């Protein structure tokens, strides 16, 4: 009997690994990476003076009452108007930031055979490979990715934690603990900025789920044709992104324009994820973002997703529902949302449709 082609399990070849492709054919951009016209990154990205807000964690936590209050107001405006901000003076040592970048980079520089020991199985999102690809005709991102579940321990797949470089696991472990504390601290201030009790989110989230994703974007001879990472919002409550200082690639969609996020040395980029959008009934929204590539420079990002425990039921908090802001989202279980998010391709803010209450069409 002739084998039946299985469309649900896309196949990848050696040349679907962008680093290998670059090595073999530096100027080649296969069709599978070439975006349709409407998706290609336009080079005009708005006035360069547009910058996401910068929040000083030290002022929030240790400043005078006046400084702290001012910073809370800045945080509120950042969350409401941008959904993205950079944090400085966050208390995570530079050495820690450097060491996670070092082990991540060392991992990506290993031969493909070594990295392929940690394959991302089709339909899963942990390991080395292509996440969110569900069909042969879906475009691929110009990116190599290693994704790992970190906390709570049951989401870990220890077989996928690289043994090379030797310090990888230990470094990711220590880094993740620091970022976890930072997320909890940020959630306290975000709650405060919304007029909620500081512990509201941390208490509600239970044993929070934390995952790490390392993205390596090799240079591309035609950055105008490809995307490093497709536009999406994050399915988390909060995301913390560390990017190398060497190149710009992250862009966020602000009032219809793609605004680049310029690296600030030792700062971390934080964004509001879908969970906070639902809980605040859209007061603080998750913002669509993407990554573009550079012609001559590679780029590395280390991303942490922080989300509620899977069994938690979510829905807009009553504080954010009134006659001016009717309830826009239903109640659902975060595990179901997470399942929905990871089994659909990245497509702007489409995954939030899962949580939205359908609006009635008036006849
Ligand atoms: C992500 C993400 C952007 C980047 O991993 O969710 O948005 O610059 N990454 O790597
Ligand atoms: Ni993202």
Structure description:
- With 363 residues, the protein is α+β, with helices and mostly antiparallel strands.
- It has a single domain, classed as B-lactam Antibiotic, Isopenicillin N Synthase, Chain (Jelly Rolls), CATH 2.60.120.330.
- It contains nine helices and 14 strands.
- The strands form three sheets. Strands 1-2-10-7-12-5-4-3 form an eight-stranded mixed β-sheet. A four-stranded antiparallel β-sheet has the order 6-11-8-9, with no helix packed on it.
- Helix 3 packs across helix 6 and helix 4 crosses helix 6.
- The longest helix has 26 residues, at 168-193.
- Residues 1-8 have low confidence and may be disordered.
- Bound molecules: N-oxalylglycine (OGA) and nickel (II) ion (NI).
- Nickel (II) ion binds next to loops.
- Nickel (II) ion is lined by residues 232, 234, 239, 289.
CATH class: Mainly Beta
Question: Which fold name fills CATH's third level, the topology?
Answer: Jelly Rolls
Q: Can you identify the CATH superfamily?
A: B-lactam Antibiotic, Isopenicillin N Synthase, Chain
Query: Count of helices?
Result: 9
Domains, number = 1
Ligands bound here?
N-oxalylglycine, nickel (II) ion
Query: What is the residue-averaged pLDDT?
Result: 91
β-strand amount: 15-25%
Cα shape? globular
- Largest sheet data: 8 strands, mixed
Total beta strand runs: 14
Terminus-to-terminus distance: 54 Å
**Rg:** 20 Å
């Amino acid at each position: 009997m002739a084998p039946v082609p299985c469309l649900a399990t896309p196949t990848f070849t050696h040349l679907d690994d962008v680093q290998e492709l670059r090595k073999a054919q530096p100027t080649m951009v296969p069709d599978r990476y070439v975006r349709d016209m409407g998706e290609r990154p336009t080079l005009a990205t708005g006035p360069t003076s547009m910058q996401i807000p910068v929040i000083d964690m030290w002022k929030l936590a240790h400043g005078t009452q006046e400084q702290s209050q001012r910073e809370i107001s800045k945080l509120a405006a950042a969350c409401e108007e941008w959904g993205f901000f950079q944090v400085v003076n966050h208390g995570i040592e530079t050495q820690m930031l450097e060491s996670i970048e070092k082990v991540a980079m060392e991992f990506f520089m290993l031969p493909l055979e070594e990295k392929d020991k940690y394959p991302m199985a089709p339909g899963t999102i942990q390991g080395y490979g292509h996440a969110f690809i569900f069909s042969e005709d879906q475009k691929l991102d110009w990116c190599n990715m290693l994704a790992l579940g970190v906390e709570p321990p049951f989401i870990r797949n220890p077989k996928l934690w690289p043994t090379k470089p030797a310090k990888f696991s230990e470094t990711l472990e220590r880094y993740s603990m620091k970022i976890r504390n930072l997320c909890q601290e940020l959630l306290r201030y975000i709650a405060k900025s919304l007029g909620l009790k500081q512990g509201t989110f941390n208490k509600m989230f239970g044993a929070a789920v934390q995952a790490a994703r390392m993205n390596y974007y090799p240079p591309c001879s035609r950055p105008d044709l490809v995307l490093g990472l497709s536009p999406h919002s994050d399915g988390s409550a909060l995301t913390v992104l560390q990017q190398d200082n060497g190149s710009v690639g992250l862009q966020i969609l602000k009032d219809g324009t793609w605004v680049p996020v310029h690296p600030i040395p030792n700062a971390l980029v934080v964004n509001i994820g879908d969970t906070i959008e639902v809980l605040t009934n859209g007061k603080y929204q998750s913002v669509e973002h993407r990554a573009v590539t550079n012609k001559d420079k590679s780029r590395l990002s280390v991303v942490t997703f922080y989300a509620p425990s899977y069994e938690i039921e979510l829905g807009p908090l009553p504080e954010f529902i009134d006659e001016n802001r009717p309830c826009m989202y239903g109640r659902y279980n975060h595990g179901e949302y997470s399942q929905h998010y990871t089994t659909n391709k990245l497509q702007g803010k489409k995954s939030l449709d899962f949580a939205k209450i359908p609006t009635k069409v008036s006849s």
